[in-house]
Amino acid sequence: MAITRVGFVGLGIMGAPMAANLLRAGFIVTVWNRSPSRTQPLVEAGAVGADSPADVAAASEVTISCVTNSGDVEEVALGPGGVIEGAAPGSVYIDCSTISPETARKVAAALQAKGVAMLDAPVSGGDVGAQAGTLAIMAGGDAATFERCLPVLQAMGKTIVHVGPNGAGQVVKLCNQIAGGLNLLAAAEAVGLARRAGVDPEKMLEVVSAGAAGSWMLSNLAPRAVRGDYTPGFMVDLMQKDLRLVLDAAHETHTPLPGTALVSQLFQSIQADGRGRDGTQSLIDAIAKLGGR
Amino acid sequence: MAITRVGFVGLGIMGAPMAANLLRAGFIVTVWNRSPSRTQPLVEAGAVGADSPADVAAASEVTISCVTNSGDVEEVALGPGGVIEGAAPGSVYIDCSTISPETARKVAAALQAKGVAMLDAPVSGGDVGAQAGTLAIMAGGDAATFERCLPVLQAMGKTIVHVGPNGAGQVVKLCNQIAGGLNLLAAAEAVGLARRAGVDPEKMLEVVSAGAAGSWMLSNLAPRAVRGDYTPGFMVDLMQKDLRLVLDAAHETHTPLPGTALVSQLFQSIQADGRGRDGTQSLIDAIAKLGGR
Amino acid sequence: MAITRVGFVGLGIMGAPMAANLLRAGFIVTVWNRSPSRTQPLVEAGAVGADSPADVAAASEVTISCVTNSGDVEEVALGPGGVIEGAAPGSVYIDCSTISPETARKVAAALQAKGVAMLDAPVSGGDVGAQAGTLAIMAGGDAATFERCLPVLQAMGKTIVHVGPNGAGQVVKLCNQIAGGLNLLAAAEAVGLARRAGVDPEKMLEVVSAGAAGSWMLSNLAPRAVRGDYTPGFMVDLMQKDLRLVLDAAHETHTPLPGTALVSQLFQSIQADGRGRDGTQSLIDAIAKLGGR
Amino acid sequence: MAITRVGFVGLGIMGAPMAANLLRAGFIVTVWNRSPSRTQPLVEAGAVGADSPADVAAASEVTISCVTNSGDVEEVALGPGGVIEGAAPGSVYIDCSTISPETARKVAAALQAKGVAMLDAPVSGGDVGAQAGTLAIMAGGDAATFERCLPVLQAMGKTIVHVGPNGAGQVVKLCNQIAGGLNLLAAAEAVGLARRAGVDPEKMLEVVSAGAAGSWMLSNLAPRAVRGDYTPGFMVDLMQKDLRLVLDAAHETHTPLPGTALVSQLFQSIQADGRGRDGTQSLIDAIAKLGGR
Fold first, then answer.
1. Quick one: which H or E segment has residue D168?
2. Is this prediction's pTM over 0.90?
3. Distance from C287 to chain B by nearest Cα, in Å?
4. Could you read off the pLDDT of B188-216 as tens digits, one per residue?
5. For A5-165, which CATH superfamily applies?
6. Which of A13, A99, A249, D50 would give a disulfide with D55, using CB separation of 3.0 to 4.6 Å?
7. Residue B190 near residue A175, CB atoms below 8 Å
8. Phi, psi of D97 (to 5 degrees)
9. CATH number listed for the domain at residues D5-164
10. Which residues of D touch B247 (CB under 8 A)?
């Protein structure tokens, strides 16, 4: 039987437009947010406000969360007033946050003991993708749960892939952050050489983007930094949070990631300048600083 | 007056299809190659064979070369029987090889003394792009010469940008190799973590490619390596030749490029295994080797 | 009044010889270890066995601990049956473990509320230095406490420096691990080039050790690895534990440490081969592996 | 028969005191320098001035050179008026410069064809070691020539090791520069963390130097940089010249040296600030700059 009632916990820069897209797709949506003021616009758009994640879960066949870190997910899912207290057996919990694969597996196991299935389904694509409903969604969990929830996920994203059991969604999101970070370093070093060798970096980016060295970062973020625009997109402090999850996972699996380790150290250079709330395109300035500009 | 006669020197894996596209576009094409056997197919397609680069230049308003390294370009352009001996004042020499910006400037100066203009116009896009006529072309030289030669370049490429004076085309190509190398490292480390954390790397690549961490390398080369296909594309030995040009330029301009330096060292790991003629996607194995697989 | 009664908690490869040196120096020594069997040799040598860290502290003017990680120190100092339960106001607790500066400060604050002073006094010099009583000791805490405890520290070490307030001892130990790790990488890369360029690495080490590129690691550990001797010294797994403390401290203070981050990734390569219990000199094999041998 | 007549070409900051030590040891010394003014003090001390390297060689059983780079050695040894024109069959040429192993082998072969043996014998220990006669000397060449020249080498150095055939001396010198560079990075990152974590770097250096993380660089150069003293010692520009020889040799032998590549990029950061003539201890500022101080 098709899912009609969906809950949403965490109405931040990503969660709010994701919940709005669920409404637009015709789902009955119940919402909760830690600071209640963010609930208002959704309620005005037709969502039902609830008093806790437990209340959201009690009203929903599928409850989605999108919060900041592993601790937040544990609290929302398993803490007092959490999803686990309200979710009926047979319902599903989908977490779209970026957290450690280990926490995802731990939460899934705790919910499963109550008959509640879980998907770890982190997303990529930024606020723009959240608004447009074109997110890439990488889902871990059992295949039947994934299939059942697909219509819900399709209301929020475009490229939706079942990548393995619980935890696998988070592993793939960490792979995504590895690639994103090194693609940014690629842009930063290319801009670095262009500038010091006296070539206009905008022209360089224009032509390099069109060939085999092109990337989303080179086309979309690098031109911003070259023009001095550091508004996030995605903040350095959050990227560093994710890169620590990456390096922790690398440590646990003994996977040497020398490039990613370098990227993380260079982002610290940006943070050392008090610019942790700038967008990740500021990595370009870590290379520029090394080069004396 | 529109250019009608074009010469081509260096009919390798890139040059032969580029020359064929010039014929297809209606130019009268004169060709020469060090080993004459490669001339035959072009002559059969309508090109005129010549006895030396000088002869090619004598027959052409624009003479193009596409050879391997700085030494080759110096010989083809300035050596005995070289372009400089045959080119008429007012004609143009376009070099599409990847060489040092310094050599490009030196050759341009020598030709200018004879009234011959030069463009350094290296390309990106591989043999596939050369055949399809969709190369990215990054051109250095004076603007008037660039404008005059644009119809010739348009027969071979799609994204064609005038990036600055002589040498600037090569600088931009070096930026292209920086970005390409680090995008490959991005793919290698993402695959490395996926494998060791027990996630199917093909599914990871599918979903990561669709989001903000996507790149040409991740979409096109990484899946080959994951399936064990190391056929080049672009050979590791040639990539290393280009990365040395990059690191030389970085040295001369005092531009710190820590990521690119790491990429170059990791490619040495592939060469140390006797795999310098594999495609650059084998960088994935340098990370795998470090990780014990 | 001079200190006469000293307690020791944690009689491992470092702690046991350190306690023995205290006995030898004439102190009355009370000891405790998690697995009681390790207490026996000390008791035979004249120490008094106790039932808990609290009992040790109750019998001692100065209680020393030497355990594995931050959690162990918290338990030994502040847990049930911990030092805090037995230590008299005016007594001193000295922790010689390598832990996070943050934990050191936290434990110091908890003890200070009970009138017990603390020194964080990690050591360097290995089991050899512990046995010989020639350890380097880097102490954080207030100067008066340091002065008062100096005779105790002098029974165990040779170079003993008061480096600042609580936590500073641990910061300096982390600096020590940074330097040690990179000095090992220095040895690994020097050996790597010697081998691949066909030069006897033992002769290389002999002469390089004698000049401006000399180091303790190059003289003492590198020759072992070259001869295929990987017995620890100091185990890779413990070094990695320490390097994570380093990288955590770097993260918190936004201190970019690109070299140390690389060292840590290379040690993961050794761990990936199941060699985490080998000595740190095995870093030489991470470079050798990259190089195809 | 014992050697009595020794020639010296290149009386710079290293060569002049080395020649003086030969005089002091009782050898008859003939000297030449490109700029003649530097010859004067040696002549006043008892040396004989000559008009060219060929004249020096004609007057000497053993001719030593100590110049800057591979090109200088080729010119002094094989160029017009070079050693090869004056040296008698059976005489020996010893080059103490740091050059590529390849050039050393090439010069040795050219001289051997004339019956002149060669040792490549680069040195470590700086101007201080040159003056004190305590240099480390790493010699490549045949064993009999090495034995015969040992009394000459002993007048200039203390640790003198025959490391293999021609070229091996230079390989070992490159290993020396690898180790020296990374030991400096060790010092730089240790100082970096100490500073940002609020610990006095001089106290840190004092205690770390005494333990297993100690090195010549940490004891001798790092304290200078911490006090703001950047006088060379050994200039950054010369270190970079040597590191390029290292990375060239690594490239030719396919030896991955990720740490050394990083060191070289960081020295470029110092050069980018126009400080190439500062001492190598300024590497500490590359890390400080990244960290924003």
1. helix D168-196
2. yes
3. 9
4. 999 999 999 999 999 999 999 999 999 99
5. NAD(P)-binding Rossmann-like Domain (3.40.50.720)
6. D50
7. yes
8. -70, 165
9. 3.40.50.720
10. 247
